[in-house]
C-alpha cells in the first residue's frame, strides 16, 4: 500500500493575519497554515499527492516517478513520503548535477535521481516523453511535474473543508475569496472545483504568464469563471529582488510567520499591492494559503 493509514489526516490551523496595511484598508485575512501539517510532507504538496497515491495503489505500483528542479518542493515531499511509507521513488531532475540541500535530502530519503539537462527537461510535455521511463521503471507510477493535473487538483478540493470547519473560531460566518501562490495552478484548480462558483479564487503567479499555467487550469476546470490569475513573478521564476526580500523580512517580523521568496513571499506582496490599489472593499474577508515550501529557502541564502 502506498497510501498512508486512514487515521493520518493533515491538520492545518486557520489563523488571523495581522498586518498594518490590512488594518488600514479594513481587509481581513486568515492564513491557512499548510506549512504546519507535517515537517517534511509540507504545504499543498501532500494534498496534490493523495489521489496519485490512490491511483498507484489501484494498479499495484511499487512506487512513483516524477519531475522537478534541484530545489523542488514537490520532489522533496514525494521522496519524504516514499521513505516514510516505504515505497520507491525516482526523480527526473532539471539541468545538470548540482549539490543543493534539497538534492542531499532527496538522496538521503532514498530517491534515485536522473539529471535530464535543460533540453531534456523541456521535452517533458512532449508526446512520448514518458515511454522510455515507463519501460525502464514499469512498476512505478508517473506523476506530472509539481503533482499537476486533474488528480492533483482533486486532492486539493479538501482544502475548502479545512477552512469551513474553522471559520467559527475566527468569528467569521463566511469569506469572500481565496488568495494563493501558483506554480502549476493545480491547487487553484482544486479550489475552483470545490467552490463551484461560490467564492472567487485569486492566483498569484510565481512564473511568468507564458509558462502555461492558464492553459493547465483551463484544462482542469473548463472555460468558466470563478478564478483570476495575476502576475506576481517579478520578472521570472526564481527571480528575487531587494524590495521582495525587504518585504518578506518585515512581514516575518510583524507576524512571526516564515515565508519563502518564490511562492508565499511573492503572493503576499502581490496581495499588498492589490489591497493598496483598492481592489477589495472594506470588510472583505480573504483566505490566504501558506503553501509551505520552506525547505526551499535553503537555496536562497540572501533570504
Can you walk through the features of this model?
- By secondary structure, the chain is α/β, with parallel strands linked by helices.
- The protein folds into 2 domains: 14-39 and 151-299, Rossmann fold; 45-147, Rossmann fold (3-Layer(aba) Sandwich).
- The chain contains 13 helices and 10 strands.
- The strands form 2 sheets. The protein has a 6-stranded mixed β-sheet. Strands 5-4-3-6 form a 4-stranded parallel β-sheet, covered by helices on one side.
- β4 (88-93), α4 (101-108) and β5 form a beta-alpha-beta unit.
- α3 packs parallel to α4 and α10 (186-195) runs parallel beside α11.
- The radius of gyration is 19 Å and the shape is globular.
- The model has no long low-confidence stretch (mean pLDDT 93).
Topology at a glance:
Elements: E1 14-17, H1 20-25, E2 28-33, H2 45-58, E3 63-68, H3 73-85, E4 88-93, H4 101-108, E5 112-115, H5 117-122, H6 130-136, E6 140-142, H7 150-156, H8 158-164, H9 167-170, E7 178-182, H10 186-195, E8 201-205, H11 213-221, E9 227-231, H12 242-255, H13 264-276, E10 285-290
Parallel strand pairs: 2-10, 3-4, 3-6, 4-5, 7-8, 7-10, 8-9
Antiparallel strand pairs: 1-2
Helix pairs in contact: 2-7, 3-4, 7-10, 10-11
CATH class of the largest domain: Alpha Beta
Broad structural category: alpha/beta
CATH architecture of the largest domain: 3-Layer(aba) Sandwich
The Rg value, from CA coordinates, equals: 19 Å
Spatial strand order of the main sheet: 1-2-10-7-8-9
The CATH topology of the largest domain corresponds to: Rossmann fold
Number of helices: 13
Biggest β-sheet strands, sense, barrel: 6 strands, mixed
* Shape annotation: globular
Amino acid at each position: 500500500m502506498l497510501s498512508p493509514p486512514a487515521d493520518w489526516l493533515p491538520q492545518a490551523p486557520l489563523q488571523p493575519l495581522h498586518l498594518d496595511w490590512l488594518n488600514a484598508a479594513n481587509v481581513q485575512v486568515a492564513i491557512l497554515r499548510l506549512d504546519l501539517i507535517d515537517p517534511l510532507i509540507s504545504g499543498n504538496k501532500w494534498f496534490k499527492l493523495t489521489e496519485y497515491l490512490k491511483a498507484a495503489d489501484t494498479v499495484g505500483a511499487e512506487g512513483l516517478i516524477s519531475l522537478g528542479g534541484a530545489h523542488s518542493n514537490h520532489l522533496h515531499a514525494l521522496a519524504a513520503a516514499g521513505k516514510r511509507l516505504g515505497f520507491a521513488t525516482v526523480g527526473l531532475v532539471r539541468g545538470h548535477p548540482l549539490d543543493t540541500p534539497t538534492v542531499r535530502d532527496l538522496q538521503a530519503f532514498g530517491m534515485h535521481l536522473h539529471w535530464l539537462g535543460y533540453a531534456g527537461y523541456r521535452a517533458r510535455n512532449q508526446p512520448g516523453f514518458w515511454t522510455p521511463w515507463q519501460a525502464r521503471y514499469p512498476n512505478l507510477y508517473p506523476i506530472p511535474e509539481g503533482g499537476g493535473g486533474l488528480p492533483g487538483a482533486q486532492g486539493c478540493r479538501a482544502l475548502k473543508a479545512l477552512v469551513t470547519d474553522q471559520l467559527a473560531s475566527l468569528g467569521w460566518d463566511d469569506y469572500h475569496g481565496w488568495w494563493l501562490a501558483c506554480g502549476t495552478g493545480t491547487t487553484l484548480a482544486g479550489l475552483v472545483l470545490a467552490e463551484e462558483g461560490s467564492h472567487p479564487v485569486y492566483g498569484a503567479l510565481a512564473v511568468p504568464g507564458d509558462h502555461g499555467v492558464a492553459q493547465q487550469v483551463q484544462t482542469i476546470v473548463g472555460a468558466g469563471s470563478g478564478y483570476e490569475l495575476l502576475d506576481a513573478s517579478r520578472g521570472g521564476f526564481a527571480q528575487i529582488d531587494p524590495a521582495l526580500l525587504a518585504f518578506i523580512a518585515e512581514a516575518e517580523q510583524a507576524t512571526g510567520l516564515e515565508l519563502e521568496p518564490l511562492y508565499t513571499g511573492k503572493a503576499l506582496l502581490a496581495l499588498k499591492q492589490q489591497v493598496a490599489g483598492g481592489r477589495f472593499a472594506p470588510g472583505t474577508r480573504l483566505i490566504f494559503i501558506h503553501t509551505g515550501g520552506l525547505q526551499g529557502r535553503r537555496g536562497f541564502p540572501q533570504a
